[in-house]
Amino acid sequence: MSAPRLLLASTSPQRRAILAQLRIPFEVVEPDYEELPGTGPAERAAGKARSVDGGERPVLGVDTEVLLDGALLGKAADATEAASMLASLAGRTHEVCSGLCLRTREWEELHTASTFVTFRAPAARELAEYVASGEWEGRAGAYAIQGLGAGLVERIDGDFLNVVGLPGALLLRVLGERGLR
Question: 45: which of 1, 21, 63, 73 fits an S-S bond (Cβ 3.0–4.6 Å)?
């Protein structure tokens, strides 16, 4: 008997791509959840997962944030803010933290995963070219490690997929422990 198809409480194309890459069967359901100020990624992941009635199927909620020296770097509002964020990350290490909630009617697993990303110190011209690419739009921390943003990164410590938007190693572990893999 195969494991039940997950319900992904997210419309993120990155999360869909990661689940497909890992060959985890899923369907997308838009969560009915409004993010509250001051909540962390675990609380937001749980809120997304709890907003979806999965019936007998497991529901997956995920939320990711980027922190530099403990300060949250959200999605840049415009190119000027993106350039400022990227300049602040240059030559430094920041944390990408994700909350993951996997739940059914009978149980709920709530976890966090962190990956540390060190940017190299690119020239101002390189940062300007990256901002001009528009890849930063809609991305926490104003970069996409799976795209052109990979050229800004010197090294990572932890799960690469977490930086993309879903802690794959953590999800596979939880699915295995719950007999869903």
Answer: 63
Contacts of 160 (CB under 8 A, 6+ apart): 115, 145
Task: Quote the CA–CA distance of 71 and 121 in Å, as a whole number.
Answer: 20
Q: Annotated catalytic sites, by residue?
A: 63
**73 pairs with which residues across the strands?**
66
Burial of 97 (C-beta count, 10 Å sphere; 0-12/13-18/19+): buried
Q: What is the pLDDT along the chain (181 residues), one digit of tens a residue?
A: 466 799 999 999 999 999 999 999 999 999 999 988 889 999 999 999 999 999 989 999 999 999 999 999 999 999 999 999 999 999 999 999 999 999 999 999 999 999 999 999 999 999 999 999 999 999 999 999 999 999 999 999 999 999 999 999 999 999 999 999 8
Q: How buried is 47 (Cβ within 10 angstroms: 0-12 exposed, 13-18 middle, 19+ buried)?
A: buried
Q: Under 8 Å CB-to-CB from 93, ≥6 apart: which residues? A: 116, 117, 118, 119
Strands 71-73 and 59-68: antiparallel
Burial class (CB in 10 A: 0-12, 13-18, 19+), 166: buried
